[in-house]
Amino acid sequence: MMNKKIAVLPGDGIGPEVMTQALRVLNVIENEFGIKFEKQTCLIGGVAYDETGHPFPEETKKICDEVAAVLFGSIGGPKWADLPSELTPEQGALLPLRKRYGLFANLRPVIVYDGLENASSLKPEFLKGLSILVVRELTGGIYFAEPKSIDGNTAVDTMTYSQSEIERIAHCAFQIAMKRNKKVVSIDKANVLMCSKLWRDIVGKIANEYPEVECSHLYVDNAAMQLVRDPKQFDVILCSNMFGDILSDEAAQLTGSLGMLPSASINGETNFGLYEPAGGSAPDIAGKGIANPLAQILSLALMLRYSFNLEEAAVVIETAVKKTIADGLRTADIMSDGCRQLTTQQMGDEVLKRLN
Ligand code: IPM
Ligand code: MN
């Protein structure tokens, strides 16, 4: 029987508030589809540090080792930013989680839902109907390579990429592109960085195995500009870890808000995945009940699709979100004229009503 255990890691800031809404959605889906997940809620991030002295406690590791997928909220905040780096929520929990489970493929779908083209700071005609997928390498590059240190006035970060690390993420991007509009733009800085020279070379070779997919290469600075100049030229954007981090935040703004961007971090071999909103813990609005829960709810849909192969259930959730937006219902971050502004909980209610 398929492993139906999931770990629920709400974390810090708005994490717990938006997670509550995603779990309500999951509950309805379980009933509707006659499936049952065994859920275990664990501590992660700043709250875990406060309670146990470590942002990624042993108990949480043990539980995550047993499950098929992790539904993750968000972590971090000013309260924990000045801890020694190995104890911060980012360096002590999130990055080790990604590494421990080999979650090398990070998928960030950037979708402008009908009605939300007015929520962005860009002109609506550039955004209507936009759908881009950022495929970000997540367990290598400058985030992880050694040496990494700070010594008095001098700090060092090292970037390395191996052929196999580039090959596997490139295959992932091309395979997904085959199911989309068959266009991959690979991002690098091959005019300056050795890692990028290797990246461009290997991606070019892998591209030959996918003759139906059009592959091109852009320097990251140009890509950042092209993303706001004419975003519809993109289908799949393939990036290394750091470039993907930066470009996916930029792309999120095309959707109107970071609160709309779900993400899936997958181990391409085992289908183990960690599903989290890309937007972070938003400590400034935490506890106010106004955060946008849609990225968390959409991350749940990605979990059902990629870790459990429940495509139909994923589509039910995504369609409910689409309808909610189309009906003019908004949280504060995506509010515009003529729409109705809702709290986090009310947004959850409205999505629930449309889950059929
Ligand atoms: C993200 C976040 C993380 C990253 C941080 C919190 C370490 O910004 O998932 O995009 O840089 O990967
Ligand atoms: Mn980021």
Give a description of the structure.
This protein is an alpha/beta fold and 356 residues long. Strands 2-1-3-12-11-4-5-10-8-9 form a 10-stranded mixed beta sheet, with helices on both faces. A two-stranded antiparallel ribbon has the order 6-7. Strands 13-14 form a two-stranded parallel sheet. It has helices spanning 15-33, 46-52, 58-66, 89-100, 163-178, 194-207, 220-229, 241-254, 294-306, 311-326, 344-353, and strands at 5-11, 38-41, 69-74, 105-111, 131-137, 149-151, 154-156, 183-188, 214-219, 236-239, 262-266, 273-277, 329-330, 340-341. Strand 8, helix 6 (194-207) and strand 9 (214-219) form a beta-alpha-beta unit. The model has no long low-confidence stretch (mean pLDDT 97). The longest helix is centred in the N-terminal third of the chain and has 19 residues, at 15-33. It binds 3-isopropylmalic acid and manganese (II) ion. The site of 3-isopropylmalic acid has 5 residues, from helix 4.
